[in-house]
Amino acid sequence: MRAAYIEQYGGTENILVGERPDPQPGAGEVLLDVKAAALNHLDVWVRIGRGGDSVPRPHVLGSDAAGVVAELGHGVDHLELGQEVVLNPGFSCRRCAACRRGQQSECEEFGLVGFQRPGTYAEKVTVPATSVYPKPASLSFGEAAALALAHVTAWRMLMHRAKLRPGETVLIHGIGGGVAMAGLQTARLIGARAIVTSSSDGKLEAAAKMGAEHGINYERTEDVAAKVRDLTDGRGVDVALDAVGAATWPIDLEAVRKAGRVVICGVTTGAEATTNLQAVYWNQLSLLGSTMGSDEDFREMLAAVEATGLKPVIDRTYPLDQVREATDRMERGEQMGKLVIEVAK
Ligand SMILES: [Zn+2]
Q1: What is the pLDDT of residue 53?
Q2: Given a cut of 80, is residue 54 above it in pLDDT?
Q3: Can you tell me the distance from the alpha carbon of 252 to that of 240, in angstroms, rounded to the nearest whole number?
């Protein structure tokens, strides 16, 4: 099969596209013919080896995929050959207390396809059978691939961790990124308001068309938190959704209202930040971490997509040969939505 993979850690020049052995599904696994995959910042961490020297190489990159069930491993009977499916990239042990409670992303053995298992930038991938779901009929393979990781992450962050309610206001940093875009769409879906930030006026205009109430260009705004308070009658937002990390964390703490919630799922600008502890207790803030989602989160997110016709925003689609170009675009932060890899027609 053809695949995009790394043999050594480093820059995008280390992404190779070529032949790799076809994988075989083990017990409890399925083989997918991948039709489309999608990029995530996680791919960058895996490629540069930030998670420790733990990935056996050569390693196929990529966490998101949609495709067709091509082979069933032993003991898999809830799926059919030829079925069109979307992959939930997260997987877990399915035996521990967290898994039995239905909180799979709290499992000690929680992992991601494309990180702890070979990834989806390939014509074929084997995955746990419990990680695949029927593809919403309203979505193309590219849209379904673009949906999975970003939308389940935003869904859990807003619906279950921050418990965002209709009419509340959420601050979303770095609009254009996958989780930020999914967060904006999810917030609008439930009738919440959104204030978004970006360094690009073009992205802020596009976000306004998607229903963002206010956009803040953080490069031209001296004090982003003060601007957020101005836009909320001095009160602050109810929720801050953060996938940016060190650069935006101090802003979150100043921009949320008393008893506000800050929910974070990523640290693209760094993992170490300063926290004003006085603001945390005096303002009675809730600081919430979130990782991917549970099986139920994924099902709920798919059901919402089916019920509302929501489609993830796709920035550009590339052929498998151009994973490197797609990744360069993501690392330059130029995208407005998801970057999709069309693997097969
Ligand atoms: Zn478990």
Answers
A1: 63
A2: no
A3: 6
Given a cut of 80, whether residue 52 has pLDDT beyond it is no
- Is the separation of the CB atoms in 131 and 88 below 8 Å? yes
Residues 281 and 323 occupy one common structural domain:
no
For residues 184 and 104, state if they share a domain.
no
Residue among 165, 46, 110 nearest 295 (CA):
110
Amino acid at 92: S
Cα 8 to Cα 109: distance, rounded to the nearest angstrom: 25
Distance CA 125, CA 121 (A): 9
Q: Which two tokens stand for residue 106?
A: 């709290």
- Report the DSSP beta bridge partners of residue 64: 38
342 CA distance to ligand 1 middle (Å): 32
d(CA 144, CA 43): 18
Structural domain harbouring 265:
152-289
Distance (Å) from CA 336 to ligand 1 centroid: 35
Q: CA–CA separation, 253 vs 283, rounded Å? A: 9
Q: Residue 50: its pLDDT value, please?
A: 83
Ligand 1: centre distance to CA 296 (Å): 15
CA of 142 to the centre of ligand 1 (A): 30
Ligand 1 centre to CA of 129 (Å) is 16
DSSP 8-state code for residue 175 = B
Cα separation of 255 and 161, whole Å? 18
Torsion of CA 224, 225, 230, 235, to 10 degrees: 160
C-alpha 89 chain-centroid distance:
10
For residue 239, what is the domain's CATH number?
Answer: 3.40.50.720
Same domain? For 269 and 144 the reply is no
277 Cα–ligand 1 center, Å: 33
Farthest CA pair distance, the chain: 60
Tens-digit pLDDT profile for residues 133-144? 999 999 999 999
For ligand 1, the distance from its centroid to the CA atom of residue 58, given in whole angstroms, is: 27
Q: Is-contact 331 121, C-beta < 8 A?
A: no
Number of domains the chain is built from: 2
